[in-house]
Write a structure and sequence with these properties.
Length: 225
């Protein structure tokens, strides 16, 4: 397998992701290509495409073996942090320009990225070319972890303030400030540190205000409130 710089005719177009009851359905359009590689990876670890291509080349010594694999799954890391699937163009078209990943392949509580790249196998050369842009985010959609904050209020008679009780559930590999809270009407936001997860935070706010929990911009692909 050889990586080629992405050409417009070998890029995925209108890539969308839909979560169903038993599977995640991926849809996209394209102009040219014979195969599609799908990389399902945990965002707890950085995704290195060059390293992944090297591992695939080590596992499949010849590209002709790669395209003849039975089933769609090409590779699974020992810790399940990344899985690679291969779909043929014919199979993709027969499935109405879509393919699916079973929910059983995805662990709960982990944010995932799903990157789709177009490949072309040139039989006369025996080479599989994988096309990718410099910015892989253009070919990636995300499965953020759904966070459900618990928010309760307790007011005091004749007081201009009330007590807000906020609890954020424990989250794997959480980074300080990935979530933040804001009091409505106040521009300033307050980062939530990992030490405050799975415990009650007591916050005093104006009596007529309420608390908003949101995802910091840098972590919008990791969590969803």
């Amino acid at each position: 397998m050889e990586r080629k710089e992405g050409k417009k005719e070998y890029q995925v177009i209108d890539y969308s992701l839909k979560i169903g009851s038993g599977e995640v359905t991926l849809k996209w359009n394209y102009k040219k290509g014979t195969h599609f590689l799908i990389f399902l990876y945990s965002m707890e670890h950085p995704f290195d495409l060059e390293e992944m291509i090297q591992k695939l080349n080590e596992k499949y010594k010849e590209d002709c073996f790669l395209i003849q694999i039975e089933g769609n799954q090409l590779y699974t890391a020992k810790d399940d942090s990344i899985k690679v699937f291969l779909y043929q163009e014919k199979e993709f078209i027969q499935n109405h320009l879509s393919c699916s990943i079973l929910n059983s392949e995805i662990k709960r509580g982990i944010p995932y990225g799903i990157c789709v790249l177009v490949g072309e196998y040139q039989k006369e050369k025996g080479i599989f070319y994988l096309y990718s842009e410099g910015n892989l985010e253009n070919s990636t959609r995300f499965l953020p972890v759904k966070v459900k904050p618990e928010i309760h209020y307790k007011s005091k008679v004749f007081s201009k303030e009330k007590l807000c009780m906020l609890r954020i559930p424990k989250l794997r590999a959480y980074v300080d400030g990935a979530l933040e809270y804001q009091i409505n009407g106040v521009e300033m936001t307050y980062p939530i540190p990992v030490s405050c997860l799975d415990r009650e935070m007591l916050i005093r706010i104006p009596k007529n205000s309420f608390l908003i929990v949101r995802v910091a911009k840098s972590y919008k692909n990791y969590y969803k409130v």
